Amino acid sequence: EAQVTQNPRYLITVTGKKLTVTCSQNMNHEYMSWYRQDPGLGLRQIYYSMNVEVTDKGDVPEGYKVSRKEKRNFPLILESPSPNQTSLYFCASSFGGFPSTDTQYFGPGTRLTVL
Amino acid sequence: KNEVEQSPQNLTAQEGEFITINCSYSVGISALHWLQQHPGGGIVSLFMLSSGKKKHGRLIATINIQEKHSSLHITASHPRDSAVYICAAETGANSKLTFGKGITLSVRP
């Protein structure tokens, strides 16, 4: 089944404890992206990748890192999480190098709470 | 001012009504996306368009590039259409996405 998976789905952690949220797709998609969703602010793009080893900042990249060493995986790394990173995170992918090339497929979301 | 504005913020309709959701943007775009977020939180991509009009089932999306405006129409609305509808502008050489805050649609039986 074609899908985007994220792990973990739920995470409660403490300030400063490094964490990684994984994102994996099995559709051989070139474009992958991370978003966060907050009440009253909507969805905001954190980082995106147009292909392996190609990443770029979205609107809210501060406090996050990403890597794209292989096509299927695009992990989101929080080196030193802070409470303002408490949010609902979505990963998405699409076939071409741009989101408008083809339908974007979204993962189920990861709800992160930083205490 | 947000680069992407959606109106109205909340919308309630009766089953069977024709519904229009609007999206305005203030920047040049390469494409405009419409997304649907179900009450359970899952997000589905509905349309991507850079000109004209697209139709899928009871959903129609239009865009006017000169006026920097897009609309999503739902014909013969049904309670299962109740969701948050989000538009996003794709901009720049690297295709960054900027989102509107979304419209919460509730369709009553």
Question: Keyphrases for this structure?
Answer:
heterodimer, A: 115 residues, mainly beta, seven-stranded mixed sheet, four-stranded antiparallel sheet, 0% helix, globular, B: 109 residues, six-stranded mixed sheet, five-stranded antiparallel sheet, 60% strand
Overview of the molecule:
- The complex is a heterodimer of chains A (115) and B (109).
- By secondary structure, chain A is mainly β.
- Chain A has strands spanning 4-7, 10-13, 19-25, 31-38, 42-51, 54-57, 65-66, 76-78, 87-94, 105-106, 110-114.
- In chain A, strands 2, 4, 5, 6, 9, 10 and 11 form a seven-stranded mixed beta sheet that branches.
- In chain A, a hairpin with a 2-residue loop joins strand 5 and strand 6.
- The model of chain A has no long low-confidence stretch (mean pLDDT 93).
- Chain B is mainly β and 109 residues long.
- In chain B, the strands form two sheets. In chain B, strands 2, 4, 5, 9, 10 and 11 form a six-stranded mixed beta sheet that branches.
- Chain B is globular and about 45 Å long.
- In chain B, strand 6 (53-56) and strand 7 form a beta hairpin.
- The interface between A and B is medium-sized, with 26 and 23 residues.
- The percentage of residues in β strands of chain A lies in over 45%
Unreliably modeled segments of chain A: none
Helix share, percent of chain B: under 10%
Derived structural class of chain A: mainly beta
Order of helices and strands of chain B: EEEEEEEEEEE
Give the biggest beta sheet of chain B: 6 strands, mixed
DSSP strand count of chain A = 11
Q: Give the integer mean of the pLDDT values of chain A.
A: 93
Q: Biggest protein-protein interface? A: A-B, 26 and 23 residues
